[in-house]
Amino acid sequence: xxxxxxxxxxxxxxxxxxxxxxxxxxxxxxxxxxxxxxxxxxxxxxxxxxxxxxxxxxxxxxxxxxxxxxxxxxxxxxxxxxxxxxxxxxxxxxxxxxxxxxxxxxxxxxxxxxxxxxxxxxxxxxxxxxxxxxxxxxxxxxxxxxxxxxxxxxxxxxxxxxxxxxxxxxxxxxxxxxxxxxxxxxxxxxxxxxxxxxxxxxxxxxxxxxxxxxxxxxxx
Length: 220
What we know:
Layout lengths: L1 E3 L4 E3 L14 E2 L14 H4 L1 H24 L5 H21 L4 H22 L5 H24 L4 H15 L1 H7 L6 H34 L2
Antiparallel strand pairs: 1-2, 1-3
Helix pairs in contact: 2-3, 3-4, 4-5, 5-6, 5-8, 6-8, 7-8
């Protein structure tokens, strides 16, 4: 164990310099204190809430399975269980990426759209997932990103890539529309128009930053 006089912390091992201030450390024998303070995780701080939520959701899904079984098992309880699984998946993404809100939003919209298409397939394919869910999800995330960047005053490099990525997602309904898979064209057309307008606005107001960020990311 070593000790830093300037920082007042104990350092595990035999490091000659303090990892915080790079000052020379002093020997400190017989000190069993942890080298850094214990920082509780999000789960540790809100453990009771998560346990209650887990009990309610899993217990509700099991109760629905039991009722469905008692009534002859029509299969509706499986959708309840699927909804619970989707809830926890999205909650996990939100917690894991809570330090990067825009990245969490991007991952969530991909997961939501994939789960929606899968759900549509499992219920007989009525095309509601590509007619309504995909356009609504992409437009909602674009709006949420614009609001967050303004409210949080994020620097350009923190949001440009995620905005561009979501705008590309917003053009996906155009491909589905051209392939004849959409039954209701209006939401898809609206989504494509919003994506193009957002892209033009980004070029008008942040064109230089977009070019620099793409060069940095693509190593041009």
